[in-house]
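User: Predict the structure for this protein chain, please.
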Amino acid sequence: MRKSALVMVAVGAAFAVLLVSSCSEYNPAGVARAYRDAYNSHNISRIMAHLTDDAVLQMDGERFSGKDQLQEMARFDSVLNIELTFTDLRVKGNTVTFKATERNDWLKLAGLQDHQYDPCSMTVQGDLIQEIQVKSTPESMQQSQELFKKLAQWASKDHGQVLDELSKSEYNAESARAWLNLLTQWKAETAQ
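Assistant: Here is the predicted structure, written as structure tokens:
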């Protein structure tokens, strides 16, 4: 009887150690950093491995949900050679808040400054991301709107249909290449 009691205590202690160690490893900020690193790698499988099947991205009022849509968004961003940085990470429960900076080839070609997002949050479920919310700063939103206004004025002459189609297109690798192509044409034709 005494031997079985010792075994029970040992099993209970091992379970308690396992439980405590697994709880101490829960690190939502680490999940956010790992996702950022995966996104910057442009490896679509690696990016998707960080998301729940029903993950949601809410960006400036647009909602993208499920792995299929988010995978296409990742392909779009990969073609643009995106680089994300996260700063001021703070954790409360299973939510990480942060500021984000986006750099990519499209912004660089357009001559825009880095695009800033603040506030941002990521809701983590275990070691996966369930929801991401990002909002452009007013300054970044304004610079993007000014660029699109100039681009639309130029495109209305000879490329209006292309711009209209792109404005209605889904985020995917093909549309990213088309946006880069249109911007390249615009810059070439308006260079002084």
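Helices lie at 2-24, 28-41, 44-48, 66-79, 105-110, 138-158, 160-168, 173-190.
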